[in-house]
């Protein structure tokens, strides 16, 4: 394992150096629903999540977060909480006294890059004062204009963008820092982490890495996509804490993460995993790295379905549409899991398309990266459908949206077959 700084989260979780890989997940309840979020945290802690992330979409959610933390501690549940902050430096500052760790993308603190740096500097000082840990979390789909204009939209750009914030932490002598560079594309994700790990090694200060495939989807595909990429990095000693993002009950993520953590460190093995699930995860871990590294072109297994899934997860052969789906969080405003399954059922016959199903209109469009089509929940029973980055049908009632999506893809593929569609 890469020698890194040790990050302390709360009083009992250590990330990095030779410590076992830490597994974590995120609530998908509404943070304002304190009862439901406490109940979910209780369940996630019981199945072995060592950190639990909770979104804080608005200032109104800050007191809810405080109450969630208070109730959990009163019950004797000490699992550190991580506040997930998008865009707002005010909310980031407000949660520092409340939670053990804060996940931010400092690049989104302000449209003016110098102002974003200034705000991040203040945020670091406050985290130092309270002894908090932070995660600098950049995703491929949401790099921001400043970064894309400066470096492009590549794994190298992701690593360079993150490294700027890493350097600020180094210079401020603040080392309770974890970094992540997630992407839904396994090749991009692996390259970005490798590059950042190398940059940090060259700089002489290596922070632990939080490794994960974002918007991996659900079922076997989501598990396989996560395992091929995460195991490739872990096998190289890159990765100290992991999240397997699934568009399912977040408790389902934990055994998959535990399987990976146990395989690559002294973390405990999952309990009660079915033989089938273990076979799938093992095959994904065994064949992921050689396929992603182009050391082999095929895999010698008889199970054709499993072979197809692994080859597609490694982006070596596509046998069905590529699906991207966010795991959902407190911002999700519709039944994401069932809708995603419906979209998969109705679109499985299309070829060479990337289809995204995203939980919210705030981050969904940015996060769906290179999807050809996007189904994005607006809230209040309405959906916007995207073609690439363009919203082409807005405010569609939820009960019509899957039909309209299928129709949109069908019409485009007919036009494209007839030579009518540009790209
Ligand atoms: S895209 Fe999904 S996971 Fe991301 S903030 Fe929106 S609902 Fe949450």
Radius of gyration: 21 Å
Strand order within the widest sheet?
Answer: 8-7-6-5-4-3-10-9
Order of helix and strand elements from N to C terminus: EEEHEHEHEHEHHEHEHEHHHEHEHEEEH
Uncertain runs: none
Helical fraction: 40-55%
Roughly what is the average pLDDT, rounded to an integer?
94
How would you characterize the largest beta sheet?
A: 8 strands, parallel
CATH level-four homologous superfamily name of the largest domain: Dihydropteroate synthase-like
Which CATH architecture of the largest domain is right?
Alpha-Beta Barrel
Outline the structure in words.
44% of the residues lie in helices and 17% in strands. It has 423 residues and is an alpha/beta fold. It folds into 2 domains: 7-292, TIM Barrel (Alpha-Beta Barrel); 322-417, Sulfite Reductase Hemoprotein, domain 1, CATH 3.30.413. The longest helix has 20 residues, at 398-417. The chain is globular and about 60 Å long. The mean pLDDT is 94. Bound molecules: iron/sulfur cluster. Iron/sulfur cluster is lined by residues 326-329, 331-332, 358-360, 363-364, 367. The site of iron/sulfur cluster has 12 residues, from helix 13.
